[in-house]
TrEMBL record:
Organism ancestry: Bacteria, Bacillati, Actinomycetota, Actinomycetes, Mycobacteriales
Protein localization: Membrane
Gene Ontology CC annotation, any one: membrane
PANTHER family associated with the record: OUTER MEMBRANE PROTEIN RV1973
Biological source species: Rhodococcus erythropolis (strain PR4 / NBRC 100887)
Region (Disordered): 1-22
Name of the protein described by the UniProt record: Mce-associated membrane protein
Ranges annotated as spanning the membrane: 34-55
Entry keyword annotation includes DNA damage: no
UniProt biased composition (Low complexity): 1-11
Amino acid sequence: MTETPQSQTPDSPTPESPTPTIVEKPKRLRKQTLLIVAGVLVVVAALGWGAFATWQKSADEDARTSALDSGRQFATDLATYNFQNLDQNLSVVRDNSVGEFAGQYAQVAANLQNMIVQYQATSSAQIISAGLASSDRDNAEVLVFLDQTITNTNSPDPRIDRNRMQLSLVREDGEWKLSNVQLL
């Protein structure tokens, strides 16, 4: 049996065995990879911005549509009443009013309530036209043209009043509320 010299162990490389070499990737390949990653990031960012812009436009359009719908309903509620269920008619407007206007409306309604009942007055409203003068997600100005048909014991034949009003709306807790009304 032959002995191996102490300096050589079975695990140590022999002078004849090749040493491992590290292969470096060409710089061109690294630049291409960086360009691809950068391109993907730009595309993702553009898609994200496009989705956000689309969502924002949709939210703005939804706010305009709901403000106009609410304005039309509030104008109808303001101009419609019946002496037989006047408390219910007035409470609908009171429940949808805020701020200084809510107090003003409550006072005017209280002053008119006895007269409406005494003369057995009724009124119905028909919206002729409505549109937004201005709006954003939390505030809107709605212009409404409506015909109000009124009857009472002094005037049993229906009388039509052509009303024009500007309603100021504010969004509170996700719902539009009436904050002011001006007759035009």
